[in-house]
Amino acid sequence: MTGASPSAAPMLETQSLVKRFGGLAATDHVSLSVAAGELHALIGPNGAGKTTLIGQLSGELAPDSGRILFDGRDVTALGVDQRARRGLARSFQITSVFPSFSALDNVALAVQAHAGHSFRFWGDAARDRRLSDPARAVLARVGLAARADVPASALAHGEKRQLELAMALATGPKLLLLDEPMAGMGPEESARMVDLLAALKGSVTILLVEHDMDAVFALADRITVLVRGAALASGSPAAIRADAAVREAYLGEEGEAV
Amino acid sequence: MPPLTRSVLLPRVVLAGLLIAALALPSVAAWAGEPFYLRLGARILVFALAAVSLDLILGFGGMVSFGHAAFVGIGGYVVGILFAHQADGSTLFGWPGTTNGYIVWPLAMLAGGLAALPIGAISLRTSGVPFIMITLAFAQMLFYLMTGLKAYGGDDGIALWSRTSFPGGPNIADHATFYYVTLGLLVVALGLGWRLVNSRFGRVLRGAKDNERRMRALGYPVTRYKLTAFVIAGALAGLAGALLANATLFVGPQYLHWSRSGDLIVMVVLGGIGTLIGPVLGAAALLLLEEFVPEAMNLVQAGLGEHWKIVLGPILLALVLFARKGLWGLVTGGNRA
């Protein structure tokens, strides 16, 4: 795992990012900074623009203006796959795995993505231990070792979410962009995911978008609050909890969660 | 090594049986005094090769190309055009024509692959229905181009007087030899195809079929891999075209017609999409039905055979509804999964 060493330069930085859909500024001059090694949570009520922001960070959406710096380099113009190869791994809000592949092969495909080019036409990939050994190790790390040979389509919802995380981890990322990893999970599964993320914390930089406030305040080093497309506040969990503007604009609506 | 249950043993037995039957066909045809069966067999093998090449991109890459016959036709035209130049002693771009197979067949593959490069590069900017329509449009463009190419027969195509020659090699003017050469090439193509779909490259292809967005998020430049597969399939189809020209001693625009592309898709679906060996069965099934169903229908009432696709339709429908992996799925039991 890389990116563990804390340094002055942020791992991810957005500079005055703007994305408009018609008259609506879904991302309104957002300047965000995620320090190397930290777990940074992004919260905000529905419609705050979290999904739009993640789209721009991952490269699926092009911002109208502003810049995105990743690991010290401007990646604003790079495509999804180029950013991924530089170490930006993501998970999806709606589970996105390879249904016809086994759990192991899902992760092996992620390993392969970062093991040089794949213009290799001859060797049997299924018997390639350079792919399957690291894949098994990552599966074990997320607690899916016993489910390695099960087709992804046959996994339970919570297991698919774990697999999703395993795939992102297997690419050896500098930054994990986790889009609501607890979405649709029961309390037990959520608790397991929180434990997993807590164990990961520190070994890789994480930007966590999550609705589960208990999880966010338990895990985050810093929190950024997004409201109506703009970054309203950014700071430690304690500071965010105490922030009057945040309380008024956001926590007021879901105040019972804090 | 998995235990030899029905689902492991039966496919092997069927494969071995098919291979033995294919190897024995020339002797059986000779013994029965029916050279027609030999020609039909060669035709099946040629279309099987084309269908296998389509399965590489359709079955494993999820690219529903509705213009695959164009690459078959291009391969055929390479044989036909070089033959025509040799026949009248004229030159093409300063080069004489030739029927030398060591030159012509690789050129047919090269032409198929080179044609697939720009067509794939443009078509792969889309996916789904637009991809189907664009590949169809490109193929029809080439069809009309060949129709208008008066120098090479236009509508009428090019009739060949002789097959490609392999100096010092097999004499494919002999029907049985041509049959065995075609069978050998098909087996080699199946073997290479099997390696390919199980390689790292093949995994990327299958991953892109399953979930392209996820592949990009993992860091794969997906289009590059899909285009490579498209070009490989085009080259293989070009070889099938060279064989087809030799099998029929003719090339014409109809080889590129969209209905031929449709036939290839039917062969793949009928035999089993994404199975490589399935399309071989599909090619055999479709061509045998095409040969014998009209004949049988004509026995019932003269002229009825024209409408033989009335029989084909329900068969296809039944397979699509009840056997997702086609004929080969019936053998492996893959349809139940």
Overview of this protein structure:
The complex is a heterodimer of chains A (258) and B (337). Chain A is of the alpha/beta class. In chain A, a hairpin with a 2-residue loop joins strand 1 and strand 2. In chain A, helix 3 packs across helix 4. The radius of gyration of chain A is 18 Å and the shape is globular. With 337 residues, chain B is an all-alpha fold. In chain B, strand 1 and strand 2 form a beta hairpin. Helices cover 72% and strands 2% of the residues of chain B. Chain B has 13 helices and four strands. Chain B has one domain: ABC transporter involved in vitamin B12 uptake, BtuC, CATH 1.10.3470. The chains are: A alpha/beta (258), B mainly alpha (337). Chains A and B meet through helix 2 and helix 3 of A and helix 6, helix 7, helix 8 and helix 9 of B.
Strands, helices and their partners?
The complex is a heterodimer of chains A (258) and B (337).
Chain A (H helix, E strand, L loop, with lengths): L9 E12 L2 E12 L3 E5 L6 H9 L6 E6 L2 E2 L5 H6 L2 E4 L11 H11 L15 H13 L15 H14 L4 E5 L7 H14 L4 E5 L3 H7 L2 E6 L2 E6 L1 H6 L1 H8 L7
Parallel strand pairs in A: 3-8, 3-9, 6-7, 7-8
Antiparallel strand pairs in A: 1-2, 1-4, 4-5, 9-10
Chain B lengths: L5 H27 L2 H24 L10 H20 L2 E2 L2 E2 L4 H23 L5 H20 L9 E2 L15 H24 L1 H11 L1 H7 L3 H27 L1 E2 L6 H14 L5 H24 L8 H14 L3 H7 L5
Antiparallel strand pairs in B: 1-2, 3-4
